[in-house]
Design brief:
By secondary structure, this protein is an all-alpha fold. The protein has one domain (about 10-75, about 105-400). The protein is built from 14 helices and two strands. It has helices spanning about 10-45, 50-75, 105-135, 140-145, 145-170, 180-190, 190-205, 215, 220-225, 230-235, 240-270, 270-315, 320-350, 360-400, and strands spanning about 85, 95. It has a two-stranded parallel sheet. Helix 1 packs across helix 11 (about 240-270) and helix 5 (about 145-170) packs parallel to helix 12 (about 270-315). The longest helix has about 45 residues, at about 270-315. It is globular.
Length: about 400
């Protein structure tokens, strides 16, 4: 194993690439926000007719996504080769050969992500306070719209990218391409549209039965459409860390658009101070709630691929029994992760429904538990990846083989 001096310029290059991804996400958020705003206006005008049509289209979207996912995983992704460290291609995974590995490379990769994370946190508070002051009174966002709208979008986007950067930092050995992470975030944002129609449709009949849509509809509908994104990138999940990153991207993208809805509404009605309080709270707690469920599902998919599949290969008697056992275990693990996501989401929404009361302490406690669970999940994935890469290094040292 070689040692190379840690290069500050290399760290900054990584930060610059992350800023490129941030710019792409901000542009996407702007257009999707405009689309979401137009959709709310149309729903207000056409009401039940548009809700019914949107719900039907949302249901039809499910097989379409599955078919597109099969095509992408079978015909597209397998034609994208690995790339060597140092080159930059949007959708190519960076492969690190044991003979080229240095002890400083991991430090540089992680340092780049944490440097970007630190910048995101600093910028977030700066832009958040600026936005709050500029819109200190209700309706000021209309008067200063050319400045207020971009600031609101940037304010809400920054914490989502900070959380993604934190997650991405713990994937140094064969990092997920930034382009694929952008796709994951994009799906998370897009999944808010069918979720909006599904929840609105369910509210039409649930309210008549005395059921709270936030507790009985939103967890199921939103967790399902976020999870649907795994069909689009399934073959790209090589291990637990990959699954966590994609799951976190789905959740962060969804929360980003949801925060745009709530944040944009409250700054118009209540002004800058409620906006600052709401966005600060949602940027730490709500976003983690949305990320945790899909991240767990992604972890379990990676665990099934990377660990259980190797075990099944030793105990099965042929390709058929191996495929059946691997598929059954995958379905069970995904159902478990999906069920956890629904229960976590439902409990959070139930507690949040009490508003500013002593129950808020329970919400804060649950938020801290979500924080610890997510951090723990990311670290477990990182330790497993480190252990496997160390095995690869050891095997290369003994035999010269690059494969585990």
């Amino acid at each position: 194993m070689k040692y190379e001096k840690i290069s500050f310029s290399e760290i900054m290059k990584g930060v610059a690439r992350d800023f490129g991804s941030l710019g792409a996400i901000i542009v996407i958020v702007f257009f999707l926000t405009m689309l979401m705003g137009s959709l709310f206006i149309l729903i207000f005008i056409f009401k039940e007719a548009l809700i019914l049509m949107g719900t039907i289209l949302s249901v039809l979207l499910i097989p379409i996504v599955i078919i597109i996912g099969v095509i992408l995983n079978k015909c597209v992704y397998n034609k994208i080769p690995l790339r060597k460290r140092g080159a930059w291609t949007l959708f190519r995974r960076r492969g690190i050969s044991p003979k080229d590995y240095s002890t400083s490379y991991r430090t540089m990769f992680i340092s780049s992500r944490f440097a970007f994370l630190s910048i995101m946190i600093i910028l977030f508070f700066m832009v958040l306070i600026t936005t709050g002051i500029l819109n200190i009174l209700p309706y000021f966002c209309c008067i200063f719209a050319p400045v207020s709208i971009p600031l609101i979008i940037i304010t809400i986007t920054l914490p989502a990218m900070a959380w993604i950067s934190f997650t991405y930092a713990f994937d140094p050995y064969q990092p997920m391409p930034r382009g694929m992470i952008v796709i994951g975030i994009l799906w998370g944002m897009l999944s808010t549209f069918p979720s909006l129609f599904g929840n609105t449709f369910n509210s039409l009949w649930m309210e008549n039965m005395g059921l709270d849509t936030a507790v009985f509809s939103a967890p199921l509908v939103e967790e399902f459409f976020k999870m649907l994104g795994f069909f689009l990138i399934y073959s790209q999940i090589k291990d637990e860390t990959d699954g966590i990153i994609f799951g976190a991207a789905f959740g962060a993208g969804f929360s980003l658009m949801e925060n745009m809805i709530y944040g944009g509404s409250i700054v118009f009605v209540g002004g800058g101070i409620p906006f600052v309080i709401l966005v600060s709270f949602r940027s730490f707690f709500n976003i983690l709630g949305h990320m945790l469920g899909p991240a767990l599902i992604g972890f379990l998919i990676g665990f099934n691929k990377r660990y259980l599949s190797r075990k099944y290969a030793k105990v099965t008697f042929g390709p058929t029994s191996y495929t059946i056992l691997r598929t059954v275990s995958l379905v069970i693990l995904v159902i478990f992760g999906f069920s956890f996501g629904i229960l976590n989401h439902a409990l959070w929404n139930y507690l949040a429904g009490f508003g500013l009361s002593w129950v808020m302490l329970l919400s804060l406690g649950m938020g801290m538990i979500q924080f610890l669970l997510f951090i723990g999940l990311v670290l477990v994935g990182y330790f497993l990846a480190t252990e496997r890469f160390n095995e690869k290094l050891k095997m290369f040292k003994n035999t010269g083989s690059h494969h585990i």
